[in-house]
Amino acid sequence: MLEPSSELKAMIEAAQAAGEGLRKHFGQLSALGVRSKSGPADLVSIADEEAERTTHAILARARPGYAFLGEEGGAIDGADAARGWIVDPLDGTTNFLFGCPLWGVNIALADDGEVIAGVTYLPMLDELYVAERGRGAWCNGRRIRVSTRATLIEAVLACGIPFAGKPDHPLFAREMTLLSGQTAGIRRTGACSVDMAWTAAGRWDAYWERALQAWDMAPGVILVREAGGIATSAAGAPLDLHGQNVCISNGAIHEALLQRLNLALASTEAS
Predict the structure, then answer these.
(1) Binding residues
(2) For the chain, percent of residues with pLDDT exceeding 90
(3) Bridge partners of 248?
(4) Residue 207 to residue 158: CA distance in whole angstroms
(5) 43 is in which domain, residue-wise?
(6) pLDDT per residue over 206-217, tens digit each?
(7) Which of 30, 121, 196, 236 is most buried as measured by Cβ atoms within 10 A of its Cβ?
(8) Cα–Cα nearest to 191, from 97, 63, 118, 65
């Protein structure tokens, strides 16, 4: 792995510190003061909040002038008008609380809305994914690249399934109708951090999800791009971190996947 910048070093330190604290709380559903945010299936705990305080303290020490956007605490302005951290201290909270090891810490650095560095740390799997613009994507110090599978029929896709309180359930059902019979498989881990990192590493060939926030997708975007893949909106437009949807792939199957996602959207809207 190339020598990381001082900013990426701080991101790695913050992600690993948060991950170590989270590991101590893993699976302790009854002891974590769990409450719902937007609905009964959208959970948050004191573990999420502790992890965000940990990341903020380390990142603020490294670059005190940068803004900070965290899932739990919201936005904190910085003196630097261009650069800011984007943090999901615990992506996959429901997995975490119920004892499933598929969860992670997401940290990204954006410059004028464009992600220039990203870290996804999966503590229970001991996988640390990092990327900086123009410097490749890496997992545990080894270079990663997207898959080379070129058709949907040989591809394994990942997706986010809308749960209670989320929109677009009929649209998702239509997407499954159009895609499930034309792929080698469709997976859902319950953690955007995992699915995007695994797409960058070539384990999945593509991933899409709707009703996302910037902190869910930001590190995964640069991981996939630096691994040789593509990241757009779910409609194929240039990606907007605040657009609430994403589609990433190895590039080879991107147009075929988008065609079906757009057909599902059009048919759902027409019904």
Answers:
(1) 71, 88, 90-91, 216
(2) 82
(3) 207, 231
(4) 5
(5) 6-143
(6) 999 999 999 999
(7) 196
(8) 97
- Number of structural domains in the chain: 2
Q: Per residue in 70-111, pLDDT tens?
A: 988 899 999 998 999 999 999 998 899 888 999 999 999 999
Say yes or no: 31 and 70 in one domain.
yes
Enumerate residues 6+ apart whose C-beta is below 8 A from 49: 72, 73, 89
- Answer whether 0.90 is exceeded by the pTM: yes
Q: Apex CA 121: angle with CA 157 and CA 97, to 5°?
A: 80
Q: Which residues of 220-246 are buried (b: 16+ CB within 10 A; e: fewer)?
A: bbbbbbbbbbbbbbbebeebebebbbb
Same domain, 125 and 192: no
Q: Which of 10-19, 36-45, 105-114, 250-259 has the lowest mean pLDDT?
A: 36-45
Cite the annotated binding site for Mg(2+) by residue number.
71, 88, 90-91, 216
